[in-house]
Amino acid sequence: MKVAVWKILPVASILTAIASPACTQTCTGATCADRYSLADLRAVTGGPGSYVPADATGHIAGQSDQGRLRALAPAGTDGLLVGIPDASKLILYGAALYLGTSDGEIDGEPGDGFGAAVSSQTQLVVGAPTVGNGPTLPSVGRVYVFPYDRPTLGSGTGDAAQTVTGTVAADALGETVAACGDVDGDGLPDVLAAAPGAGSLAGRVVLLPGGSTATSAADLRGWDGDVAGDLLGHALACADFDGDGLDDAVIGAPYADSRSGVGTGAARKAAGAGSVRIEGKDGEILRIDGSQDDAYLGAGVAVGDLDGDGLPDLLVGASGRVTVNAASDDLTGSVHLFSGASLRDQRATGLTGDRIKDTATFTGDNTRGRFGDTVAVGDVDGDGILDVIIGAPGSNTGSTGNVGAQTGAIYVYKGPFGGLQGGLHDDRVVGDAILTIEGARVYQRVGESLALADLDGSGASEVLFTTREQP
């Protein structure tokens, strides 16, 4: 890997993976967005303000023929895991990134999509959704669980402590994964893995218990989408929302219909409203539904203690319609913050579905922006208080007048949030962001992937994200 590096200063450093083309021919039209390849990892340094990728002050040149960078995840507090599924590769960067070298790497098998999804807690989980099981069962998918939170140089899939393979063609097990704490009460860390293609895209999420010897997804406990097209498992997270000391599964289904009651037989209300399920050891704890057609609640999920009360709070992206009167193809998007304490109170009173109320709302301003497609929480400014980070990869902010430009944007909102501290509902708009990163060219899709980590040891998390480049 060819490297040129500039040391990054602390404060709000922003690392951005810049994509450049692998194709050599002129590329025009919306489908070009899927042809761009990873080339560079860059760093933009600065405090509150507005930035574009060209503001990068640090630069690592990658290999454009490896295919598009897709998955980002923190490794501990000071590492970045980068998945490149077209190359079946996972790369770890830590402090050595500033010296121009990676800290570790795992290679999958050609064509298996290894690195499409990655998550790390006390163990490392990697999805390979295009693994096949013979010529008649393509893309059954596979999940690898490694007994460490970051790879070392020379690691391989043979180091995996657990390997689980899907059984149905096109289920794509491992398209999304989450490394969790103890979910089932056996004292061992567990794993969530999604197979979004299951049931004609209804989606299925399986729980892989720590220490399990199961090698087939068919042998695992799981949750299924209600109907075809729900895409259950599009977003995953884990946290203890019912106070039993165990992690609960947080599962997004952005294309699910809302319900007017509880249970699979409940009447349906809003088509494509989206939902988030919180599933515990003994069953469903809570379900949150979008309140209108095509809201796409559950496009992104993140958890963290945003008010300092010791309870996890839930951040949910809804990257579709914001208002009932919006056009049917509106993708302005919004993000909803639910305090952990409020969720417990509302659950205790029997509220569910679209009657669950948030405590803060963030709203996009671009009709194709998909604001909320990605969300994250972390301390970006180093003040010890978690901030909210939101991606809008469809935004055209960097290309005035071109509604399909997909230049993309990222917005950072400073915590704390009034609604979480017993005050009035906290409403924030794009203009309230303390830090904005906007793509400058068509199809860059800034904000398509997000992660946070303090790679330079400054005490503040860098915002990590991918972009693509026009050939």
Structure characterization notes:
It is a single chain. The chain is mostly beta strands. Helix content is about 5%, strand content about 35%. The protein is built from two helices and 32 strands. Strands 4-2-1-32-31 form a five-stranded mixed beta sheet, with no helix packed on it. The chain has a five-stranded mixed beta sheet with strand order 3-30-28-27-26, with no helix packed on it. A five-stranded mixed beta sheet has the order 5-6-7-8-12, with no helix packed on it. A hairpin with an 8-residue loop joins strand 18 and strand 19. The radius of gyration is 21 Å and the shape is globular.
Report the portion of residues in β strands: 25-35%
Q: How is the main sheet built? A: 5 strands, mixed
> Which whole number gives the mean pLDDT?
83
Number of strands: 32
Strand order of the largest sheet: 4-2-1-32-31
What oligomeric state is this? single chain
Q: Which spans have pLDDT < 50 for at least 5 consecutive residues? A: 1-14, 18-27
Task: Based on the model shown, name its key terms.
2 helices, 32 strands, disordered N terminus, five-stranded mixed sheet, mainly beta, 471 residues, 3% helix
Concise synopsis of the structure shown:
By secondary structure, the chain is mainly β. Helix content is 3%, strand content 34%. The strands form seven sheets. A five-stranded mixed beta sheet has the order 4-2-1-32-31, with no helix packed on it. It has a five-stranded mixed beta sheet with strand order 3-30-28-27-26, with no helix packed on it. It has a five-stranded mixed beta sheet with strand order 5-6-7-8-12, with no helix packed on it.
